[in-house]
Amino acid sequence: MLATLKQTAELVEFFRLHGTKQTFKKGDFIIRPGDAPHGVFYIYQGLVKAYDITKYNEENLLIIRKQDEIFPLIWAVTGKEHHIIYQTLAPTITYKIDRKVFLEFVQSSSDALIPLLDMTIEMYRLHGERILTLEYRTVRERIISFLLNMSQRFGKETNGGILIEVPLRHQDIASSVNATRETTSREISALERKGLLQNKQSFTLLKDIEALSKHLI
Predict the structure, then answer these.
(1) CA 84 – CA 140 distance, rounded (Å)
(2) Same domain membership, residue 112 and residue 9
(3) pLDDT bucket at 109, cuts 50 / 70 / 90
(4) What residue numbers bound the domain in which 74 lies?
(5) What per-residue confidence (pLDDT) applies to 210?
């Protein structure tokens, strides 16, 4: 990362001083379906998933935002709307500021651009990884690639393996790997029977990272 702790702290402090603190329960909408963005949000605590609705009326998971990230970042900078829905995956606290105030701050503080550049690069990396995941031929390979990528971003080491601390529905995984929910559920069950992963209270435990990785070679 390019930003120093001081530069990041300055950006965070700006949101805390000038933003409106908002508290959400799990499952609450921050930006509802069909609504235009109504501010720029800094996630102080929690998880927020960004998704759209396909022409088949199914959710298409795009990205999961976590603590210390800002959304919707592209709209905040360019003003272009993409009709993305933002919904919490856990109890969440945000600080919201007006887009105009956000832009004035960014334009007046060169230091603020560095942590924003870090966030933009991370977005680019995540979307690039999703494209690479879709290049794998089988659904099982795509699921494994998706879960390994999620473990890098949200994984916690435990005695039993790497626990992905994000509640992932089979539909979320399916939409990310371009597969049906039924096929995704079947492949995940097969990996569970092999002892490679386990569902733990809506979280996913990767029990053998090395064995999972070998499926992608």
Answers:
(1) 28
(2) yes
(3) confident
(4) 5-132
(5) 92
Distance CA 40, CA 86 (A): 12
Q: Give the pTM.
A: 0.88
Q: What is the rounded distance in angstroms from the CA atom of residue 142 to the CA atom of residue 138? A: 6
Give Cβ neighbours of residue 166 (< 8 Å, ≥ 6 apart).
47, 64, 89, 150, 154, 203
Q: What is the pLDDT of residue 167?
A: 92
Chosen domain end from 110, 132, 154: 132
107 and 200 co-located in one domain: no
Q: What is the DSSP letter of 169?
A: -
Q: What's the pLDDT score for residue 98?
A: 95
Of 68, 103, 132, the residue that ends a domain is 132
Angle at 207 between CA 203 and CA 209, to 5 degrees: 110
